[in-house]
Amino acid sequence: MSRGDRTVVTGNISTSMRNNYQTLGVSEYYKKVGSTYRNPHFPGIRRCVFLWLNRLWEMDSAVLSTQRRILIFDMACGSGEGTIAAKEWWSLGRRLHEFVVLKSEGEKPTVNLPRSRTKIAPPPLGPGVRQPHIIAADPFTCAAYRDRTSLPCAALSFKEISEGALPPIPSDTEVAGEEAMPGDGARTPIIDIIICSFALHLIEDPSQLFSLLWELSSKARWLVILAPHKKPEIKDGWGWCKWDIDAWQSCRMTDQIRELVNDRVHCRVYRSMNVRQ
């Protein structure tokens, strides 16, 4: 996908993404709506991210409760749907912890909780769970992402990422030596979670998809794919194993396991085979 110049268009042109893609083509569509794009499936994305982080906390809370801040890469970030969901999960969990502590001490909680709580809530998160570092990239929607999240965004395409590029990682990210990415002695931290929502299936060439996923498998522990269907097809030997979140173990790529599905958003999880867990 090339970046090109954008023509400012308000909104998403059509609520049907299939119509948008068929009418304009993927690249041209995102060039036109790059600064105003909003994913209409955000409620489902949010719930799926909450469910995944809840399950990760339940099964491997040490990952999230260490004193270091976990690193999340919102790849093909759109206007920040994955970022917002992860930040809300953390902030709501912290408020719930404060609420529980005050109530247990017999004090009247003064913590403001949302009146209309989501049916899917995070666990109470103590002070040891620090706010995640989030880095983001999208070749088209950086303006929309920055406007909505107030966070930086790198205008990187899938091709550039497959060739080794990453958004700048905050300098205050704490990295243990064994967690550094290999090569040149650089102490670049391993990414804990990659979130890719409604984008990976747009890579139609299997060789390009392989190149991207293999590169990422050396840089991240978990890959969370959010999509309106079960595409793309990820194959054995591409650096990732399919993860059964119920059994909390790897499974065959062909195994029919339960997926997280909310508001027509499918969430599939993969674990890197090239990064020490």
Write the SSE topology.
Blueprint: H1 17-24, H2 26-33, H3 42-65, E1 71-75, H4 81-104, E2 133-137, H5 142-149, H6 158-162, E3 191-197, H7 206-217, E4 220-227, E5 240-244, E6 249-251, E7 260-262, E8 265-272
Parallel strand pairs: 1-2, 1-3, 3-4
Antiparallel strand pairs: 4-8, 5-6, 5-8, 7-8
Helix pairs in contact: 1-2, 3-4
3D architecture notes:
- InterPro entries: SAM-dependent_MTases_sf (IPR029063).
- The structure is a single chain.
- Helices cover 32% and strands 16% of the residues.
- By secondary structure, the protein is an alpha/beta fold.
- It has one domain: 3-Layer(aba) Sandwich (Rossmann fold).
- Strands 1, 2, 3, 4, 5, 6, 7 and 8 form an eight-stranded mixed sheet that branches.
- β7 and β8 form a beta hairpin.
- It is globular.
- It starts with 16 loop residues before the first helix and ends in a 5-residue tail after the last strand.
